[in-house]
Amino acid sequence: MTKLHLVRRTGNTLLRRIICYLAAIAISMGIGAILLLSLGINPLDYYSDMLTVGLIGNKYAYKSVEGFLKVFVPLLMVSMALALSFKMRFWNIGGEGEFLIGAMCAAAIAYRCDGMPGPVVLILMCLAAMISSGLVGLAVAFLKCRFNTNETLVTLMMNYIVLYAVKYIGETKAPWNFFLREDSERPLFAKFPDNAIMPGIMIGRFNLLYSVVISVILTVIIYIYLKYTKQGYEIAVVGDSINTARYAGMKVNGIILRTMFISAALIGLAGAFSASASATVSPSMTNNAGWTGIVVAWLSKLSIPGILVAAFLISLLQYGCLAASLSYPEIDQNFADLMQGMILFAVLMSDFLVTFKIVRRKETES
Amino acid sequence: MIDPIELMTLFLFSIIVYSIPLLYGTVGEIMVEKSGSLNLGVEGTMAVGAVIGYIVGCRADSIVAAMAVAFAMAALVGALFAFLTVTLQANQNVTGLTITTFGVAVYFFIGNALGNKWPQFQDSPGFAEGFSVIRIPFLSDIPVIGKVLFSHNIMVYMAVAIAILCWFYLNRTVPGLRLRAIGENPAAADSLGVKVALNKYIHIMVGSGIMGLGGLYMGLNMGGTFEGSNCWINGYGWIAIALVIFVNWSPAMAVAGTFVFGFFNTLRMYNGALASTFPEVLGWLDDIPAQFFSALPFIITLLVLIIDSLRKNKRSGQPKAIGLNYYREDR
Asked: Do B310 and A160 touch (CB under 8 A)?
């Protein structure tokens, strides 16, 4: 009698993984093509529109790149920050909330520090965002370490509490509310004063924002931090086995607290960057980066180079669908979510083929 | 000026109406979580069940068909979750979140694809008839209470019946006991010969199916009109996940718990009317922002979570192995 049996694969699986993932993406795009055909749309035309994000034959191509970066940079930063905590198997799914906290605190500085020199205001905004958001992360980590509170559920609840708080600020006209425009009857978030808007380096007509440059530098720093520093190593050990870390004399709680602070602070910084780049805030400004970041971090197996690739591809998908929806009104941006879901399902299935091997085993009757 | 008694009746009636989708979602999620799986895909599962169930219901002109399809499609989404997390050992949080993104996107995709061919609820008399109010004889004649509790459509009564059935199943039957054992300690259950994977599959699928019914109810409650901007489920799936914690993983408590959350939700819509009708007693309601009522379920759940862990609650109904995948050879 033969029986199918699962065995974990050992050894280097990188090449196998890349092939499997490419196949997963191809299958998802195939299903997507069938869906597009069912709507009477030529999938080749649609996909080429999507993948070129309206760059070709566009007089304002630099605008497309700027728009793409506005999706890509927050997603990249959030994914990396989440990967830090996921590496410890600490399920911080509060990216949305932490992002908004950072953005709102940055906005408070922006509105209140009118008239101060630009660089000072921008640095203050970033610091405020990182500290406020980091403290929230610290609080969650403290509850986990001290009382073993389920961090997944705590951060999940937190996302919605923060979201409604932001909506409250954005929808309430009151004398204390300095976040809103004074000249408008309807409640609207005010535009930041000029000194709080992210400056950039002009390359031709293309404006390369400093936030983009900083996020690239941060990517390198986080990569080195995780790979070559003692603290990065500690994170990996805690994630592998808390008991091993304890036997090795590591202060596990300290590591968790420190890493969660960094993780949340980075997400807060992403919020501040995003607010400063778009010169205002709104409840929907996260663009779901907090949720998508979880998927990106996981897709890339928490590796920083992997995150760079996955965040790029997912942003391309999201921004590409937005660009393509100009010429295909019957398909809105939700098609990107649909594709994203299918790609992730396919990748999770192919993950299985990467980590496990199905062996046929002869069972000897005894 | 509204008659105070009429307003109170309407208010209490609305609490029930808006609680029911939460009850379906919560009971469904309890079934899933009791098997040790944390499914964050409630929102998406409800959306898929709702949109496909609704369309088939309109085509077949029958509420039974709508409910059967809503249940089946949501169970299929549950099967996908089970396949990925139980068989393929994928991470539960990531899979659940993706199911939410995917399910809501399916809702929008189908809605946009149908465009003006979207079926209208009024055009299917049999379907509408099936969803109309069933007045329970005698009981519904009682003033106020009769209208509030005993004049609802079939899906309201069914939700309560399903909740009680699930409570009985989990606490008073052998399969229910086995299921709870899997949620607490799958390795121990496995060693006693309980089929862990099979049980997880069944309960994730049944639980998801129940969520799908809740989605269908929400859609019907909104008159079945597709809106391009807002999904029918509109965050109720997330509140259901919060409720599971609030009611301590008990389907019987869920009946009471959903009415508490439904109360806040309804208060958000009625606070103006209540404040102007009873200015002396409830005038202060006007000062509370609507967003606070929206956030209240999450604030309460957060507090419950923290207080529960502070007290090191031994009798907490949270399954010990929740969120962890079970792979036999990792023991």
From this structure: no
| B-chain residue closest to A293, CA distance | B94
* Tens-digit pLDDT profile for residues A101-128: 999 999 999 988 877 787 889 999 999 9
CA of A271 to nearest chain B CA: how many angstroms apart?
Answer: 21
Q: Is residue A59 domain-resident?
A: no
Instruction: Answer for the pair A250, A111: CB distance below 8 angstroms, yes or no.
Output: no
Residue A116 domain-assigned (yes or no)? yes
Predicted ipTM > 0.85: yes
Best of A160, A168, A357 to disrupt the B interface by mutation (most B CBs within 10 Å)? A160
- The CA distances from residue B84 to A349, B61, B91, B96, in Å, are 7, 35, 8, 10
Residue A245 has pLDDT above 90, yes or no: no
Is a pLDDT exceeding 60 seen at residue A1? no
Contact B224, B231 (CB under 8 A): no
**DSSP E strand boundaries for B104-244:** 134-135, 151-152
Q: Is the pLDDT of residue B311 over 70?
A: yes
pLDDT value of residue A269: 96
Taking contacts as CB-CB distances below 8 angstroms, the residues of chain B near A168 are 289, 291-292
Interface check for A20 against chain B (CB to CB < 8 A): the answer is: no
* Residue A335 within a domain: no
So where are chain B's domains?
Answer: 4-330
Among A156, A284, A343, A351, most B C-beta atoms within 10 A, so best to mutate, is A156
Give me the number of domains chain A comprises: 1
Tell me: pLDDT of A2 over 70: no
Which helix (H) or strand (E) segment holds residue A8: the answer is strand A2-8
- CA–CA gap between residue A79 and residue A216 (Å, rounded): 13
First and final C-alpha spacing in chain A: 12
Name the residue with higher pLDDT: A139 or B151.
A139
Residue A38 lies in a domain: no
Interface test with A, best of B45, B101, B226, B327 (most A CBs within 10 A): B101
Range of the domain at A215: 69-301
Checking if the pLDDT of A147 tops 60, the result is yes
Q: Is A337 in Cβ contact with B101 (below 8 Å)?
A: yes
